[in-house]
Design brief:
Elements lengths: L2 H17 L9 E6 L4 E4 L15 E4 L4 E3 L8 H10 L5 E4 L3 H8 L9 H4 L14 H5 L2 H12 L10 E4 L3 E6 L2 H24 L8 H12 L13
Antiparallel strand pairs: 1-2, 1-5, 2-3, 3-4, 5-7, 6-7
């Protein structure tokens, strides 16, 4: 992908988070990666979304070293970079402090799958990271946040569950590109909200059965997926 195209996608992903009501003020950020070139494009730190242009975005390498841009990159860059290095399948990341997903993170609870809306996007519960140690927080905090997320996926496929809750902090979502990452961030907030109301209505609500969960996830994401329209062939 051309760097100019990636800049446009990352800008659109950031603006999409605002349109979806997933960020307030300057909270949150979206990024994208060109794995072939080893470059990350990310929102600048603390810059309002209004009036943001592609040229305002910051370009770094996969270690977080500045390559292009006059602005300081998002403070969460080391987290994004750690995930890109650990999970080559990820092409875009969106971090928000969206209301319901953040509430689950603050309560230190993974989001259970109670229904097919959740199953359409996530092949299992939304995992929660372990609480970071004082040493991790006082050290390279943002990089260690990435390490905590990576630890949470030791037995979970990040492609099939493209989101996580960082304990006491908030949600991260990702996808094959920045726009899909922003979409998954929106879906994460939706299922967090639905789960919150489900537990409020019935504290003994049953989890979605495995057979129905598999059917809904695989009809969209499986090898023989049939949901939606097939891509036009040349």
């Amino acid at each position: 992908m051309l760097l100019a195209d990636l800049r446009e996608q990352v800008l659109e992903a950031n603006l999409d988070l605002v349109r979806k009501g997933l960020v307030l003020s300057t909270f949150g950020n979206a990024s994208g990666v060109a794995h072939g070139e080893g470059l990350i494009v990310i929102k600048p730190s603390g810059v309002p979304y209004e009036g943001m242009k592609p040229q305002h975005l910051v370009v770094t390498d996969l270690q977080g070293n500045l390559v292009e841009g006059n602005l300081r990159p998002s403070a969460d860059l080391p987290t994004h970079a750690a995930l890109y290095r650990a999970f080559p399948s990820i092409g875009g990341i969106a971090h928000t402090h969206s209301e319901y997903a953040t509430a689950w993170a603050q309560a230190r609870l993974p989001i259970p799958c109670f229904g097919t809306t959740h199953a359409d996007y996530f092949h299992g519960p939304i995992p929660l990271t372990e609480v970071m140690s004082d040493e991790e927080i006082n050290g390279e905090y943002e990089a260690n946040t990435g390490v905590a997320i990576i630890r949470a996926f030791q037995t979970t496929d990040p492609v099939r569950v493209p989101a996580v809750l960082v304990a006491h902090h908030g949600p991260f979502a990702w996808g094959p590109d920045p726009l899909k990452a922003a979409e998954n961030a929106g879906m994460l907030e939706l299922v967090a909200r639905l789960a919150y109301f489900t537990v409020g209505l019935n504290t003994d609500a049953n989890l979605l059965g495995k057979t129905l969960h598999e059917r809904h996830f695989l009809r969209k994401h499986g090898r023989n997926a049939y949901y939606g329209q097939a891509s036009a062939k040349e």
